[in-house]
Design a protein that fits this description.
The chain has 626 residues and is an alpha+beta fold. The chain is 19% helix and 46% strand. It contains 11 helices and 27 strands. It has a 16-stranded antiparallel beta sheet, with no helix packed on it. The longest helix has 17 residues. It is elongated.
Length: 626
């Protein structure tokens, strides 16, 4: 072997000994080429059957966990793949082989095996100098060390809060201890130990202790008895509390439009959820294209920390034209205009016109931006003409009220005047309603556009007066509720459950407007039946009833591993609408469907059979109705 080749071989060996644990190679050295991830054992095996000048062959015998670990990180395996044995002297190879038991033991300790037995056997030698060309590493890991005791304490501001009985601090410490994954009896592994420590700091920082760190952590290993005792002390640092906002990016809107969306008071702890909720309100306000909220983590100003708010505004005027089709209302074209600073005031005006084969409508709203109390005031109106298989309804509504929206809860309160003229083959009726309304929507879901886990609940109440053609006037009360549950079933199976019910309370002879009554059937109701086709029959046509309930159960699963956003589904729906609960005769529909989980929400295509209608119907829609 020449001096230069011996030097190159020595450099390669030293490099691999240094970088083995990092999982990197020495591709920068001459004649070195790194294997693909996870291919070291295969490469070593193939090298063992090659001619004498090929790489050193290494066989590893032992349990799967040991074989996998040592095949990826043992220096002699890596060197055997990269360095020709002819470039290494017999003495150099012997030194590398003699280091195997110590290195293997260190690697096995990271998986909790602190009393492992490792020996190396020579299987083949080189004819030239008798140096090993193929070796066997025999591993007996021994019993695995398990966690015996865990002691987790906190000092800093949080420690002082806990000592004086502060409920949030005590609750957080209890949660940290309860969520600690390395509980007594579990195997002790270095990766799990590191991940658990990171998780504790992450949770502390998310709770408002933004500069939390470890004062000390110790894992005392009793190898003879296979026990590990864990001691941890976290320094929470100061609890960061909200101070002033530093707002950047405003040109059209004013600072109050941002500050009123904060949803918190100066002095409130700056938790991760506080920052995310603020950011979410900014993005949902309809004023900003992008929004980011961050905390300045200067411990000297933790008592009144500055929050950095960076926004990119949407244009003042926006015109949107659309063409679409729905199985509920047929093909349609739409035009929508938004003015986000009407006449220079902190107000938004929206107007939308829809023209379709079955539905023609105008919908408009004038709304203030969110005010300091978290509400926006609005007034609006709707004119709609809707044609079904049995009637044509022309309705007009005017509203005045206020609304509050947050990531979890939406509230709306308004007064409404509602008028509807319904025409059937037997004549025309006019109904009117004057109501005060209150609505709530509560969400606890993992994703607002594509939920797979969580629940939503909505409830609406109305009270007022109703009158209609030939029926006089009557006091009116209305209640309606809807619940949806998204349940992960494991192995990429997902269930969706939905239930809704409602009732209108009026005198027996009174008529209610089409909007205040109930019908069932269609995409988000009972599939297998036409849109709004389920209800009591009056004047020879389906009308809106006084009571309604529907229910749905659906199970979905991705169809192809290569297309995880395309799901298949099976479902069953049931329900109906009527004038009394006794006369409500529910119908059933079931079928199969496709789901494309697009960036704007799920696109659903369903083929459903209505058992009462004795026919198959195609349904398609975009989005989820909460």
């Amino acid at each position: 072997m020449t001096r230069s080749s011996r030097l190159r071989a020595a450099l390669q060996a030293a490099c691999w000994a240094f970088f083995a644990v990092l999982g990197t190679g020495c591709a920068m050295l001459p004649n070195a080429s790194a294997p693909a991830d996870g291919q070291a054992p295969a490469a070593a095996a193939s090298a063992a059957s090659a001619p004498e000048a090929a790489a050193l062959g290494v066989d590893i015998v032992g349990p799967a966990v040991a074989r996998d670990l040592l095949s990826r990180f043992l220096d002699i395996v890596r060197l055997g793949v990269l360095a020709p044995t002819s470039d290494l002297s017999a003495g150099e190879l012997e030194r590398l082989i003699s280091a195997v038991p110590a290195q293997a033991s260190e690697l096995l300790q990271t998986e909790g095996y602190f009393d492992a037995s490792v020996r190396v056997e020579t299987l083949q030698t080189r004819a030239s100098d008798g140096a090993p060309s193929r070796v066997r590493v025999v591993v007996e890991p021994g019993p695995r060390t398990r966690v015996d005791r865990v002691n987790l304490e906190v000092e800093g501001d949080m420690g002082r809060y806990v000592a004086r009985g502060d409920a949030p601090a005590q609750s957080l410490l209890t949660a940290l201890r309860a969520s600690w994954p390395l509980k007594p009896g579990t195997p002790f592994r270095n990766p799990a130990w590191s991940d658990a420590k990171v998780a504790v700091l992450t949770r502390l920082r998310a709770a408002g202790y933004a500069v939390a760190d470890w004062s000390g952590t110790t894992a005392q290993i009793d190898a003879a008895n296979q026990r590990a005792r864990l001691y941890l002390v976290a320094d929470s640092g100061p609890l960061f509390r909200a101070g002033d906002l530093s707002i950047q990016g405003l040109k059209l809107q004013g600072e109050p439009d941002v500050r009123n969306l904060a949803g918190f008071k100066p002095g409130d702890p700056v938790t991760e959820s506080l920052l995310l909720d603020f950011q979410d309100r900014l993005q949902k306000s309809g004023l900003f294209e992008q929004a980011a909220v961050s905390l300045e983590t200067d411990p000297a100003h933790a008592g009144a920390a500055t929050l950095q708010v960076r926004v990119r505004e949407l244009a003042r005027h926006q015109l949107t034209l659309g063409v679409g089709v729905s199985s509920n209302s047929g093909p349609r074209v739409t035009a929508e205009h938004v003015d986000r600073r009407l006449f220079g005031f902190a107000a938004t005006a929206r107007n939308k016109v829809e023209w379709g084969r079955l539905r023609q409508a105008w919908d408009g709203e004038l709304s203030t931006h969110v005010r300091a109390d978290g509400y926006r005031w609005f007034t609006g109106g709707t004119i709609e003409r809707l044609k079904t298989d049995t009637d044509i309804v022309l309705s007009q509504r005017i509203r005045l009220g206020r609304a509050s929206e947050s990531p979890r809860i939406e509230r709306i309160q308004y007064l409404e005047v509602d008028r509807a003229a319904r025409r059937t083959g037997l004549g025309r009726t006019v109904t009117e309603a004057f109501t005060a309304n209150q609505g709530w929507l509560w969400r606890d879901i993992d994703n607002p556009l594509l939920p797979t886990d969580g629940r939503t609940l909505s409830l609406s109440l109305a009270a007022g007066q109703a009158r209609g053609t030939g029926s006089g006037s009557s006091p009116l009360a209305r209640v309606a509720g809807r619940a949806m549950f998204f349940v992960p079933l494991g192995r990429n199976w997902h269930a969706q459950l939905r239930g809704e019910a409602g009732q209108v309370f009026v005198r027996d002879a009174a008529l209610v407007t089409d909007n205040m009554g109930f019908r069932a059937g269609g995409d988000e109701s009972v599939r297998g039946y036409a849109y709004r086709s389920l209800g009591p029959v009056r004047d020879g046509a389906v009308a809106s009833g006084r009571v309604m309930w529907t229910a749905s159960a659906e199970v979905a699963h991705p169809i192809l591993a290569s297309m995880p956003s395309l799901w298949g589904a099976v479902f069953v729906d049931a329900g109906g609408a009527a004038d009394t609960w006794r006369s409500l005769d529910p119908v059933v529909g079931s079928g199969v469907g496709l789901r494309w989980r697009s960036p704007v929400g799920p696109l659903k295509l369903d083929l459903a059979y209505g058992f009462a209608a004795h026919r198959v119907r195609l349904h398609f829609s975009v989005g989820i109705v909460f």
